[in-house]
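User: Predict the structure for this protein chain, please.
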Amino acid sequence: MSQPPQSPYDQESEDEFERLESTLPPSLQRSASSLFETLQSNSPVHGSGSNILNSPAPTRENHFHSIYLNNPASRTPKPPTNNKQFRSALISKLSKPDNGREASPLPIPRPKFDEEFFKPAMNTKQSSTGVLWVTERATEYGYDSEHVGEWANLGQGAPEHGDTIPGSFPRPKSIPVPDNSKEYAPTAGIKPLREAVANYYNETYRKNKSSKYTWKNVCIVPGGRAGLTRIASIISDCYLSFFLPDYTAYAEMLSLFKNFSPIPVPLSESDNYEVHLDMIKNELIRGVSALLTSNPRNPTGRCMNPAQLKQLHDLCREKCLLIMDEFYSHYYYDDNCTGSSISSAEYVEDVNHDPVLILNGLTKAFRLPGWRICWILGPEEYINSLSSAGSFLDGGSNAPFQFAAIDFLEPLKVKEEMKALQLHFKMKRDYIIGRLSKMGFTFNEHNTPNSTFYLWLNLSHLPGKLSNCLGFFHECLHEKVIVVPGFFFLINPQNLSRLEDVIWYNYVRISYGPELHHLENGMDGIENILSRFGCLPYERTSDQ
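Assistant: Here is the predicted structure, written as structure tokens:
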């Protein structure tokens, strides 16, 4: 018996989902197919009445076991399902009215460029990743970053930047422009700011140490990415290890530069992605001579404790360049929000001998991401090379903002500012954990963030579509909520197929950086989704 013709709506919906998938980087284009496979493994499709979205979700381990271990001869991603009837039925369940919503069209990414236009020498295969990708998709749903309105952007990795934190100093409303700031600033930054940075680190972390930082140990850079790019440009002929999951922008930096070999080291979900010192020993044994990591960590919100950090430095002091991304070092809640912070600077013995480069800046701790004033601390020889690299990479930081930043770095002022920041952001962390706990998410001492303003949220207990980060992201768009799918934190610059089985399909990153009313809207949106799919642990009432 011949099958009924596929409706134009089904075909259009299928094209939309495939278009969404096509906007992802090649190494992640398995995501939509993974969503189909997850749904298929939950419940076979038997016509339009299948209860496919309300079946229990398989665990991530079982899902990967079925995909990879049953076919040990091949670790390459599976192609999308070829069964048109099956695929169309799944699209129908994902796209048509059900679960209490009027309609669920899938995101329709617009082409970034005119596909008919000839583009000589341009890399048209370059895809957006991470925050940029989710923002592009949200924009197609009506999000406007300059007029946020009812949207809750829990994807952007930025703290609230207004005068909204009790006890915090007022954000500057204007910036003086002295005559000497109208000239090009040195590519390593102006000397007074470099001195202020060195003094802050000496007073805060090195008071009882004989070796002190000077202005010659500081390089001012126009943003964290610019700092990472300068570092990548001055290292060569080495293996560089980094841990997964980690900051998504590392991927582009590690893939662009060919003067070193990046070695990804996946961490284990079972112990909450702890960086064990045995791992580092093994990396050093196999010849790694550079190590890049964020501490505190993005996206998990956890950080090494002081004892671990000291051991890390002792291990690497004579063998390995440590590149420590410390942008969240002041978002640290383990010391009762006293304004204290954690930094590798405390465990450097000799500032000009220990091969340690520390990145930080005004972006996160001082809540001034738009200023693009950051710094790298390290031995003088490294700083000289970083200064030279700035002359051909980025030209240096904005001069007037550098002069304005000097007064911010008085050590006692910083501690008072960080105490206010920690109390406020811990309150926001506790708020979203409280809301999500009531919705059925589980938190304990191991997966509760003790630093940063990120939550690495496990979706694996949710039904069907919601257990997959792409499906959850899609539903969030309908509630005007933005999150970042977990698979973007698979930093795989060499597209190593063996890493495919550690993609975090069951995780999203949520930022509690925005103001509290945005967090409230975001939690309301997620609660609406779970209510619509019938997976709240309580019956919703109007006063909840």
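Confidence is low (pLDDT under 50) at residues 1-10, 43-82.
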